[in-house]
Structure formats: C-alpha cells, structure tokens
C-alpha cells in the first residue's frame, strides 16, 4: 500500500481494514478504512492517526514520504479509539511535534495516555494554524459524534478534513468517490452513506444542519471532503453534503418495513398477510426477521421507510428479547417523523404489543393504533384480519407521509 495524493503535497497515509466484520457491534460486511492525511510544507503536518492495529502501516506510509521525525504538527480531530490509539507510536517518532486538539479532546486523551510527555495546543472554532503555504482552520463540532469532535479546513487546497462526518464503512482499493463509482457502483456508495448515518449520526440531525449552515456562513465550499472512514469525496462533494441535509431533516420514502421475531412461527405467520395488505394499497414493503438480519441493516431500513411495524411474541409478559434490543437501539438513535405500530402472538397472557407502544411513546413517534395480537397460531380468519391491518396501516401511512 502506498500513499495517495489528494492534491499537490497532501497525501492519504491511512490503512484499509479488509477483514473487520464487527465494528463495536456494528456489522461491517464491506470492511472499513482508517484515513489520515499528511501535508508536506515548511512545517509538516499529520491530520489524525489510525487504529492501533494499523499503526505500523500508517508509519510505513509516512516513511514513504518523509522521516516522521520531521513532523511538526499533529491534528487530532476526534479521540475515538479507531482514530487515536496509534498516537503513542506516532509520538515516539515525532519528538518535536505539537498536538492540536480541542479542550475536550485533550481531557479525553489524558484518560488513554500519559500525555505529560507531549506538547499541546488547545484549539477552538476559528483558530488557524499556519504551516507554510498551507494553513488549517479549526471548527469544533461537539457531539458529531463525540463531545471532542472537530473538523479542519485547508483553504489553500479547499479540503475539509471531516473526521467521522461524511464517512462510510467500506474497504476498497478505490480512494475516491469517482473511482469507487466506476469500479463498484454509485448505488453501493450511497447505501453505505445511509447505513453509516443511520447507525451513527441519526441522533444529531439538528446539529448536522447547524454545522453545515456554519460552513456556508464561513464561505466554505470544499472541493474535497476527506473523512476518516471510507472514500474521499473529490468528484462531487456536494453529493454527500446534500445527502446529509436530506437525512438530517428525516427524509424517508413512502414505504413500509416489517421487523419481527418469532418463537414458534405464529408471529411470523402474521407478518405475511400484513405485508400483503400493505402492498395491496400500492405501498412497497420489506420484511426483516431480526435473528436473520444484522442490526445495522434493520436500522438502515427503518431509516429509509416512513412507517414500520414491529412484530413480537410475548415472553414472560414482555417483548421478545431481540425485538426489545432493536427498540433499545432505536431509542438511543432518537429517530423522528416515523409512523410505527405493533403486532404479535401470545400464549397465556399478552404484554409484548402493549410494551411496544409504551416504547413508541417514549421515543415520541407517531403510533398506529390499536395494535394486533392473537392467542397462539393465527386462524384463517385471523390472517384475514392481518391483511386488513396491513391495508389500514398503508392507508394511514400515505396520509402521514403526505405531511412531509
């Protein structure tokens, strides 16, 4: 692997993680990358580091360009482990380097390392670092997606180093969006952006709109957006900016999703006529069984659909564990502007459907009521009621969607 030039004297020196499939609980079937960048100038500057497992790779990448001992500045935009845990190895090779980091970033870094050995410059929004013919403007972006987060903008090259924002979990030999579109497909890249946003950045929609607005107020229209994961946006950076604005305003398609799990197939049997009823009203519907589907895929599909029905059997008078887990994930992601309902089966006593609606209320989502539940296996007559339930959900969904 060799460094890749973004613009003259600015290089990608990161690493590709082809094999990772579990990213702190987030399933990554396409792998990922850890991106960091080197600016060659009068004062050589490294922007971000990588996950510890790949420190030897980024060091080799840097050595292909320059002796690391010549690095004068290291910018840390974000201190999550996948971006900063190689800093100890990097600093051992850069004795004269100063770390530029937000105040919260410095406090966090102190918890991971003995930082008394290193030199720091605490930066805030608007601070500028002049390194020669290039400079870096720092913009704090707290809670996008950690309190320490910030981005760095190089006005001379018109490059925004955006840390986790605008990233994707994809491992690819293509470093840029145009290369990825050509060798894989634009649809795969767009899907990866949605998957990343839905599972990581969904809670921060209002903040994203604010920060995109801040960039516009500062007159920043980057020619290149260089995130810390996935491909670098150089052909059309506005593509990902527009995508984020749409997602931050809770954009969704007129489509339905059925998410369910089942013990003895009774709830599963209910899901099929419900889906048929939805489709009979001209609304597309996808059905996902939780134990057969990665959680991040469920969340991505939830995000795409304006309405979702959750199917759960009752176990010990409460939600089935996998359905409860899914709803817990969604509660933390704080979705908005979605229509939701519940259905399920039970044996001696119900409880799952009632609890689902209690969770919906806590999430502030629009409920489709009442839910639907049957004792044990649904009868033929019950399946007809499921079909009607699906029809009514689709009709309500079309009305609800028309308000957006």
Automatic annotation (TrEMBL):
CDD domains cross-referenced by the UniProt entry: flavodiiron_proteins_MBL-fold
A Pfam family: Flavodoxin_1
GO function term, MF aspect, one: metal ion binding
Source organism, top-level taxon: Bacteria
Start and end residues of each Flavodoxin-like domain: 256-394
InterPro entries, alphabetized: Flavodoxin/NO_synth, Flavoprotein-like_sf, Metallo-B-lactamas, ODP_dom, RibonucZ/Hydroxyglut_hydro, Rubredoxin-O_OxRdtase
Family per similarity comment: In the N-terminal section; belongs to the zinc metallo-hydrolase group 3 family.
This protein's name: Beta-lactamase domain protein
Originating organism: Pelobacter propionicus (strain DSM 2379 / NBRC 103807 / OttBd1)
């Amino acid at each position: 692997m060799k460094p890749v030039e973004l613009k003259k004297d600015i290089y990608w020196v990161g690493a590709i993680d082809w094999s990772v499939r579990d990213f702190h609980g987030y399933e990554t079937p396409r792998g990922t990358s850890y991106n960091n960048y080197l600016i060659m100038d009068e004062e050589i500057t490294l922007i971000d580091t990588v996950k510890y497992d790949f420190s030897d790779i980024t060091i080799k990448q840097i050595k292909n360009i320059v002796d690391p001992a010549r690095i004068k500045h290291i910018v840390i935009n974000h201190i999550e482990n996948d971006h900063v845990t190689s800093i100890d190895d990097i600093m051992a090779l850069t004795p004269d380097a100063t770390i530029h980091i937000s105040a919260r970033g410095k406090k966090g870094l102190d918890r991971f390392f003995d930082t008394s050995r290193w030199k720091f410059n605490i930066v805030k929004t608007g601070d500028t670092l002049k390194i020669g013919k290039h400079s870096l403007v720092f913009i704090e972006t707290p809670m996008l997606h950690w309190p320490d987060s910030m981005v760095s903008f190089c006005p001379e090259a018109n490059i925004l180093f955006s840390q986790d924002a605008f990233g994707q979990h994809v491992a690819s030999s293509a470093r840029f969006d145009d290369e990825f579109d050509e060798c894989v497909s634009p649809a795969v890249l767009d899907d990866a952006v949605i998957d990343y946003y839905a599972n990581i950045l969904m809670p921060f929609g209002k903040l994203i709109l604010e920060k995109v607005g801040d960039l516009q107020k500062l007159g920043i229209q980057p020619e290149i957006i260089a995130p810390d994961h996935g491909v670098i946006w150089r052909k059309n950076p506005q593509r990902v900016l527009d995508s984020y604005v749409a997602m931050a305003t809770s954009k969704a398609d007129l489509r339905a999703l059925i998410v369910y799990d089942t013990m003895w197939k009774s709830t599963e049997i209910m899901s099929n006529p419900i889906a048929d009823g939805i489709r009979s009203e001209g609304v597309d519907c996808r059905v996902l069984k939780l134990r057969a589907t990665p959680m991040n895929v469920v969340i991505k599909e939830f995000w795409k659909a304006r309405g979702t029905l959750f199917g759960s059997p009752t176990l010990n008078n409460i939600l089935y564990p996998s359905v409860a887990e899914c709803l817990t994930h969604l509660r933390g992601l704080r979705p908005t502007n979605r229509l939701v309902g519940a259905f399920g089966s039970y044996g001696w006593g119900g409880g799952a459907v009632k609890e689902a609606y209690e969770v919906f209320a806590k999430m502030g989502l629009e409920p489709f009521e009442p839910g639907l539940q049957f004792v044990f296996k649904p009868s033929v007559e019950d399946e007809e009621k499921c079909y009607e339930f699906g029809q009514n959900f689709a009709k309500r969904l079309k009305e609800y969607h028309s308000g957006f």
